[in-house]
Amino acid sequence: MQYPLIEKIGNPELLVGREKEFRIIDKWLSLIPNRMSKSKVIVARRKSGKTVFVQRIFNKLWSDPNLGVIPFYFDIAENQAWYPDFAIDYYCSFASQYIAFIQRDEQLVNKPLSLKKIREYGLANSNELLVDDVDLLLENQEMGLHDSMWKTACHAPHRFAAVLKTRFLVILDEFQNITQYIYRDEKCEGKPIESLAGSFHSLSESKIAPMLVTGSYVGWLLQVIAKYLEAGRLKHFYMSPYLTQDAGLQAVYKYAEFGQEAITNETALMINQLCMADPFFISCVIENQYEDKDLTTADGVINTVNYEISDRRSEMSETWNEYLQLTLDKVNEKYAKSMLLHLSKHADRYWTPKDLKEELGIDLSIDQIKKRLVQLSEGDLIDRGVSDIQFKGLSDGTLNLILRNRFEEEIDGFAPDLKDVFQKQIKTLTSENSKLRGLLYHQCERTGDYSA
Ligand SMILES: Nc1ncnc2c1ncn2[C@@H]1O[C@H](COP(=O)(O)OP(=O)(O)OP(=O)(O)O)[C@@H](O)[C@H]1O
Ligand SMILES: [Mg+2]
Fold first, then answer.
1. Which Gene3D superfamilies has this protein been placed in (predicted)?
2. Where residue 244 falls among pLDDT bands split at 50, 70, 90?
3. I need a surface site. Which of 148, 149, 311, 435 has the fewest CB within 10 A?
4. Do 337 and 217 lie in a common domain?
């Protein structure tokens, strides 16, 4: 296995689990040569491992040229860009990754060639497609035909697949950003080109260059897709933010080993339990710079986990606070926080706007309450039920802890004692483990085999 695309995870060995997801995706990839794979969107909440997953798919395809699917990965950055520059950036990334694949040149994956160099390569290797594309891009640039430039760029994978009788996988990360950061104006003033996502309308139906799309803001991403790509064009692929217990434990050991952090077999279990096998949570706890950090004792683990959840400077808090703020800024604040906290605390049932009005004594109309709930669900902070008026807190342990810590004091008047919650969990874990050890011991006594 080769890793030409530098993965965001850092050391590739850190990536664990996701066996089920890789099995499904591997099957899908294996059907691309037969044109049987429809484009997909990976739907999963913030920090659940979407980027590391799609980057690994890139490297797997790159390492298996016999499958005949050439991967193209493009991250649509949160940077303002002028339309023709964006078109050239997209094209150069695509062409360079294509050349990298056929030449088996890892360097080109991370360092795209310029248009000039792409043309030179095309001439030297009798690749007319590349030469013609570069000529057309430059000609259109000269004439100010920016729409044509973008068309040449975004259609390139499909066109190359058709002409060269090969297959591409177009992986677009942070796809929603395409509606917010590309400007017709050279100085990036005025409004961005919101409809740019629509350029992928027909391309998303390509069976010779299908797309695999994802992004950090799932509610927003799905809205963009529904508006510009027609429902059903991208099959939804759901991914849980949590690993299995076994994979979570493996993540704890890996992050500790690579981060040179001392842990014991007991505390590894505790870290996994308190982080709920959430790989981002685990990585934050093990990598954080908390003073007096000691992951070899139960108290040390509790303090470190508590720091990640409750200290504003921790990576977990910063990540989630940025996300919550962005969503809450969009929602009219009045009662939004208290509804969010209430739904999260009682995430075992659905609530209607009328239920919430009565329960929380909200002096807003049912319609006003519903509007805020819809906005919260569009920001992925709550779920919606089958009927139009059902809403539910996310059954997401990490997010609940963050919400409780952030809003409980402000709304209920007292801060939650999360350390106490963690202590109770550790106690249960320890007693379960000693029961297990007891059972194992009895089993060994019966069989006479103590090797376990
Ligand atoms: N399977 C995994 N094994 C080990 N660590 C993982 C795994 N998945 C995610 N992580 C950890 O979680 C971090 C976040 O993952 P990633 O950036 O891929 O999430 P994301 O869903 O793309 O986030 P965002 O919503 O911000 O785009 C990674 O940097 C890595 O440390
Ligand atoms: Mg990501």
1. P-loop containing nucleotide triphosphate hydrolases
2. very high
3. 435
4. no
